[in-house]
Amino acid sequence: MFLNILLVLGTFVFMEGFAWFAHKYIMHGLMWNWHESHHVHHKGWWETNDLFGIIFGVAATALIVVGSEIESLRWLMYVGFGITLYGISYFIFHDVIVHRRVKIKFKTKNRYLNRIIRAHYVHHKVHERDGAEAFGFLYAPKKYEKP
Question: What average pLDDT does the structure give for the chain?
Answer without folding.
Answer: 95
